[in-house]
Amino acid sequence: MSIAEAREISRLASLRNLKILDTLPSESFDRVTRIVAQYFGLPIAAVSLTDVDRQWFKSHVGVDHTQIPRFKAPCSEVAETCKPLVVGDFELDPYYVDSPLGQAGVRFYAGVPLITPDGYGLGALCVLDTQPHAVDAQQMAVLTDLAAMVMDQIEMQHAVGRIEAVSGLPNRYQLFSDLRDLQIHAAGKPRLLSCLDLAQTMQFDRLSRVMGPSHFDGIVASVAAFLRSHVGDERTAYQIGPTQFAIFAPENATPASCVPVLEQLLRDVGEVSDLRMTMTPSIGVISFDPGDMSPEDALRALHGAVQDARNSETGIAFYSATRDLWHQRNFRLLHDFPKALAEGNQLHLAFQPRLSFITGRIESAEALLRWNHPELGNISPSEFVPVIEASGQIRQLSAWVIDQSLLHLARWQKNGFDLRLSINISALNLNEPDFFDLLIAKLAHHGVSASQIEFELTETAVMAEKETSCDLMQRISDLGVRIAIDDFGTGYSNLSYMQKLPADVVKIDRCFVADMLLGNRERVLVDSMIKLSHSLGYDVVAEGVETREAADLLQAMGCNELQGFWLSRPMPEEALCAWVLEKRAADLVHAAVA
């Protein structure tokens, strides 16, 4: 091998290592070519890189194509010699007169080399025209300075915060930059971007703890090498997180055509470094128009798609705007909740009475939380309470609900209005070490007896809690507070566990009450639930009673109380007091007449 051949191999290796060939157009390079064209007053300028058999344009002004053959290309000579070149008139140059550029009508060329720190010429920064020209030393000095700026940009993108050390792949900042360039140059051309996530956070933490970071680095390096071979030289893989890799699909790809490819990718990557034994890879995909979606939103949507993929059966999920809006709404609720709690005019209680079949009287009511958001309007507790509960703010919410409930009870007691109030709390409150002491303090502060309140906890939540929670429930029960198991029948229904619960009431879920009118099997199920609950020592409340027929059936089955729209919808405090007093007065009149 000759010295020239060996140098050319090294030069091409240096070019490949910079990972700039066939990358997206970049505004940072386009600014330079625009300046060059304006400074020289010429129509054509380019940042040209010399590949094996072509000149590829990272940036260009005045031409539509992105590459030309390397054969007799002036930029190739500049790259090989690392020296400036000026061809004042192609027609007077015996070598370039019949070159592809000369035959295309180009008459003038001036280019200076793009030289790496180790002395290899990558290509040239050049200007061209269809008319002959002469250039002076000052113009060539300016062109040389601008070429150095281009080279600085190339080196900076490669070396300063743009390449992950372990994988050798472009990182999230480079992907963001490429997305920004797509926004400028590829608006109206939909693209598909996928994200391969090797592991859930818990798996990543466990593997790093057990095997050490060097083992994980080996996995990342293996996956990066696999992805390079998978995408080929024409596309780029990015490492955008410790376990996450992004890949653009080919420009003509469709969501349907991508699915088999992604399924195969999941299967293949699972075999890399025994990955399948320690991690569960998943892939999220977004289809987007770079002109309509900002780089920030594209990356956010991509991460959302990956999270959805974690919950899918296939391990693959496409971005869903509907799911995204749902997550954004939940975040909005979480963000706005502390303000709603502090202001005091957004949250309020409504009350739904319960009728006792035994006495025929309204003896209790359930306090139901309501949130009237200033912008989103009325928000159902079934929507916002799980969000608050998952955030860890349920302590503050339960404290507010208990305070407000006791405040109402104290006011009713002062006005001679006797009614037990059922209050919904979270099973997570039972894990608070000071919950019992705070409850005693609140009862004393408001002057309310423990026997006037009932705590409701969902069956599923109670079953999932620890033994210490049962101990706290027992202390609360011993204090005189009634405990009700809400939504009975929809959760675990672990009878051996339920017989140990210090509860007084079970509330049969509304779905069973509604189905009761469908047929005999449904009625037998509700009847069995009532009898079983009674045998375990519980009173039974039926929720969601909406018809007289259902109420009569429940009374015949021995149900203790009912609650539902047939009796009354939830109402404000003033309406509840008036409604109960009116009903009690009517009952007295009816009894007197009878």
Description of the structure:
- The protein has 594 residues and is α/β, with parallel strands linked by helices.
- The protein has 3 domains: 157 residues, Beta-Lactamase (2-Layer Sandwich); 148 residues, Reverse transcriptase/Diguanylate cyclase domain (Alpha-Beta Plaits, 2-Layer Sandwich), CATH 3.30.70; 265 residues, EAL domain (TIM Barrel, Alpha-Beta Barrel), CATH 3.20.20.
- Strand 10, helix 11 and strand 11 form a beta-alpha-beta unit.
- It is elongated.
- The protein starts with a helix and ends with a helix.
- The model has no long low-confidence stretch (mean pLDDT 88).
- One of its GO terms (molecular function) is cyclic-guanylate-specific phosphodiesterase activity.
- This is Diguanylate phosphodiesterase.
- InterPro entries: Cyclic-di-GMP_PDE-like (IPR050706), EAL_dom (IPR001633), EAL_sf (IPR035919), GAF (IPR003018), GAF-like_dom_sf (IPR029016), GGDEF_dom (IPR000160), Nucleotide_cyclase (IPR029787), Rev_trsase/Diguanyl_cyclase (IPR043128).
